[in-house]
Write a structure and sequence with these properties.
It is a single chain. The chain is of the alpha+beta class and 348 residues long. Helices cover 58% and strands 7% of the residues. The longest helix has 36 residues. The two termini are 52 Å apart.
Length: 348
């Protein structure tokens, strides 16, 4: 283990030695000699052959040379410590390499290098993440680490999958009926990235180029609550409204995404940060009344929003999003037989 640890350390030090050797060539020559020797030792270890003990002893003697004269009795315990530290260095290096590989595979297969907290990956797409619970102890952390590998390998075949929107049995509402190819737009009404994506689609003519069908989806937290305070209520209300009067559903979403209150605050922000559940319900009732529904119709929709029928539709969409599509974040769009996760940019 000592020679393997030495190779790892020398490989890291090589970055700095390369700079120093520009000014002091003899430093570079000595370093290359040691690196060559450690590489030969590592090669033998990989081939399951015995490493040259000379190199191992050279490393130890170099580290212990100042101790041996003054404290000869320290040699054995310090030698054992060097062995232990060598093992730790090798284990950490292997773990770091595997983590790097896992992160790159996850980024390619799932669109995020952090499987548990997708939004924490700065290399991934801009999304509102669908998070998983954090491990509470080392045993859960170890199990979770292996589970993430399983998720990654399970998602790799999806990279080659045909994402024809018509192949997924979503419950949707249509933005504007036309004869263009179908596109499915999965949004959380409380997600600010979803709002920005929706506005970009609207301004860029995306809704004219495709027959866009909206899937409203309330992201759940690992504890069973919802990521955005009133998203579930908005989704339920939109589904119930769509069952009663589908022409008004997209107008309700428009009110939340594109209009502001008298104080200039966007309504999405108010639903997320200000309105209680009762205040949110009252505001949705007000929106539906402004869209032309009678008081009785609004009352019927409010009652239907929590019915078994709506619960079934919500769970149907959730199963497709989480199990079939394996989404780690939204907005996600299905069009041109491909899956596009993250902010839709108007320039595309």
């Amino acid at each position: 283990m000592v020679c393997i640890a030495a190779f790892i350390i020398l490989a890291i030090i090589g970055i700095f030695v390369a700079i120093i050797s520009i000014f002091k060539r003899e430093v570079g020559k000595k370093y290359l000699q040691m690196l060559k020797k450690s590489w030969g030792c590592l090669g033998k270890k990989i081939r399951l052959q015995k490493c040259e003990t000379g190199f191992k002893e050279d490393v130890k003697n170099t580290l212990l040379s100042r101790v041996i004269i003054k404290h000869p009795t320290w040699i054995k315990p310090l030698s054992a410590i060097i062995e232990i530290v060598s093992v730790i260095i090798v284990v950490v290096a292997v773990w770091a390499l595997l983590t790097a590989i896992k992160s790159l595979l996850a980024l390619w297969a799932l669109g995020t290098c952090n499987v548990t907290k997708p939004a924490a990956c700065s290399l991934g797409a801009e999304v509102c993440s669908i998070d998983e619970s954090e491990p509470s102890n080392i045993f859960e952390a170890t199990g979770r680490w292996f589970e993430e590998w399983g998720e990654i390998f399970g998602a790799i075949p999806d990279k080659f999958k045909d994402y024809n929107p018509d192949n997924f049995d979503f419950y949707t509402f249509t933005v504007k009926e036309n004869n263009q190819p179908t596109a499915v737009d999965i949004l959380d009404p409380g997600c600010s990235v979803c709002l920005a994506s929706y506005l970009n689609q609207k301004s860029s003519g995306f809704f004219d180029s495709y027959n866009v069908k909206i899937v409203l989806f309330a992201i759940k937290n690992p504890d069973g609550g919802f990521k955005f305070r009133n998203s579930d209520l908005i989704v339920r209300t939109a589904y119930a409204l769509n069952e009663a009067n589908p022409e008004l559903t997209v107008k309700l979403l428009d009110r939340i995404f594109t209009t502001r209150d008298d104080d200039g605050t966007n309504f999405q922000s108010k639903f997320n940060n200000i309105y209680s559940a009762d205040e949110a319900a009252a505001k949705l009732d007000e929106f539906m009344s402004e869209l032309g529904l009678s008081e009785q119709e609004v009352s019927d929709i409010r009652a239907a929003a929590h019915s078994d029928q709506i619960n079934t539709l919500i769970e149907k969409n959730r199963a497709i999003v989480e199990n079939e599509l394996r989404l780690k974040g939204i907005p996600t769009m299905l069009y041109d037989n491909q899956k596009h996760t993250g902010l839709y940019k108007a320039a595309e």
